[in-house]
Amino acid sequence: MRTRNTDKEKIVREKAVELLLKEGFEGFSVNKLAKLCAISVATLYIYYKDKDDLILKVAIGELQKMNDMMLTDFDPELPFEEGLRIQWKNRARYLQDNPTSMLFMEKLRNSTYQEKVFENTMTGFKTAMSRFMQNAVKRGEINPMPVEVFWAIAYGPLYTLARFDNENKSLMGKPFTLSNKILWQTFDFVIKALKNKT
Amino acid sequence: MIAHLNHILIFKTNIDCPEAREKLRPVLDAHSAIRQWSVDLHDCDCVLRVISETLKPDDIIAMANAHGFECSELE
């Protein structure tokens, strides 16, 4: 059966992420990717100009996917606790559905592709997130603070738990799975830390 | 603009460094029937990719050969 092009593109993207994680940006090659996707090298070159173009397009596609998923049901005008809860829900779901994504993003951040990829994508996401924080400050729900401090407290714990979950172990190799109970228990502590008493 | 798929020609070459690519640049850049071209120097097949509505693979192969490069259609 012939598959639709969008399916093919999805396969290429998934396999490219997989291959980049395995081989790194240096070891990655169009040839290896073609083999992994069971399509011809020539086909890949029809859609992508060269290795750099392929990596950039795959990375931008992944970021777009993340962007869309994180903004599901989210509105920067929401009350702080409600908005942050939706962010936690979206991010936890994204990380659990895309276990390789976090590792890939990490690799991307440490690569020469970083500038080209992160500068021009996720603008909708970036605007929504900074507006959300500004609104919360304006309404007196949280105190003004550097954005890094906000991020470290608001999302840092979630990413730490996601990493434990991803590796199936926590501190000193203790087996770990991220349950809803642990997720929302942590969320409550985060709210306690950030949100002003009314 | 997305090029028509049939207008994208893909070749395996031995154009393996920027100097080699620059040797071809004048002739490919100046060709009125070539809309866009690039060489993937990171690839082991040094893939040459040409977008042209009218040129046939053999035309490109002849051009590359004339400048001393190996060039064959990539299947």
Describe this structure in words.
The complex is a heterodimer of chains A (198) and B (75). Chain A has 198 residues and is mainly α. Chain A has a domain at 74-194. Helix content of chain A is 73%, strand content 0%. Chain A is built from eleven helices and no strands. Chain A is globular, with a radius of gyration of 19 Å. Chain A starts with a helix and ends with a helix. Chain B is α+β, with helices and mostly antiparallel strands and 75 residues long. Chain B has one domain (5-73): Alpha-Beta Plaits (2-Layer Sandwich). Chain B is built from two helices and four strands, in the order βαββαβ. Chain B has helices spanning 18-30, 57-66, and strands at residues 8-13, 36-39, 48-51, 71-73. In chain B, strands 2-3-1-4 form a four-stranded antiparallel sheet, with helices on one face. The longest helix of chain B has 13 residues, at 18-30. Chain B is globular. Chain B starts with 7 loop residues before the first strand and ends with a strand. The interface between A and B is medium-sized, with 12 and 15 residues.
What is the CATH C-level name of chain B? Alpha Beta
Strand arrangement across the biggest beta sheet of chain B: 2-3-1-4
Major sheet size, sense and barrel closure of chain B: 4 strands, antiparallel
User: Average pLDDT of chain B, to the nearest integer?
Assistant: 91
Show unreliable segments of chain B: none
Q: What's the number of extended β-strand segments of chain A?
A: 0
CATH fold type of chain B:
Alpha-Beta Plaits
C-alpha termini separation of chain B: 25 Å
How much helical structure, as a percent, in the residues of chain A?
Answer: over 70%
